[in-house]
Amino acid sequence: AQKITQTQPGMFVQEKEAVTLDCTYDTSDQSYGLFWYKQPSSGEMIFLIYQGSYDEQNATEGRYSLNFQKARKSANLVISASQLGDSAMYFCAMREAPWGGNQFYFGTGTSLTVIP
Amino acid sequence: KAGVTQTPRYLIKTRGQQVTLSCSPISGHRSVSWYQQTPGQGLQFLFEYFSETQRNKGNFPGRFSGRQFSNSRSEMNVSTLELGDSALYLCASSSLPTIPQETQYFGPGTRLLVL
Lengths: 116, 115
Prior knowledge:
The complex is a heterodimer of chains A (about 120) and B (about 120).
Chain A: E1 4-5, E2 10-14, E3 19-21, E4 24-25, E5 32-39, E6 46-52, E7 60-61, E8 64-69, E9 74-79, E10 88-96, E11 104-106, E12 110-115
Parallel strand pairs in A: 2-12
Antiparallel strand pairs in A: 1-4, 3-9, 5-6, 5-10, 7-8, 8-9, 10-11, 10-12
Chain B: E1 5-7, E2 10-13, E3 19-24, E4 31-38, E5 42-50, E6 53-57, E7 64-68, E8 74-78, E9 87-94, E10 105-106, E11 110-114
């Protein structure tokens, strides 16, 4: 089974509007971390936001927020007030507890295009 | 604080050759992970090093190897290159790999083209 599932290969959003990128995950661990990264065409993976499995509040970082629904095992990224520079690939990732092996599991990514 | 650096940024090789890629983690970070990214397979984990020891390895053939030095810098080596090895190779570092919330920070990657 896939550890991380991103079902939206591509998304379009109008500039200044909000957009939600979906992510579901699969784990039997109680302790895990969820991350979102942005990858522009240059290739570098840029860390955006983190949510811990024990965090009761949804994480926020500027225009980014993470809609964490633990029972549904979803960790959707919300980008508010989209900007042209937000056009990029977005990856959802999960790290499980250390005894599960120290590696990140990445989804297949969502390509976001912001339209002027 | 300087970010993760990778050298070289671009590389062109021919089939059968070998290649060595280098990664310098963020100062103070002792864990380095390597990933291969291709359009067809996405991001795939290669291996992770912590304190000069390989802790975890992905499902790649033995042609892919790595090591980590005492200053936490890491190298990965691919021998007998194949066309399918053409990819973006990303290195990531973190300071405390033993807790799930520890973030990995990525370098700019090395784009390898095998002809």
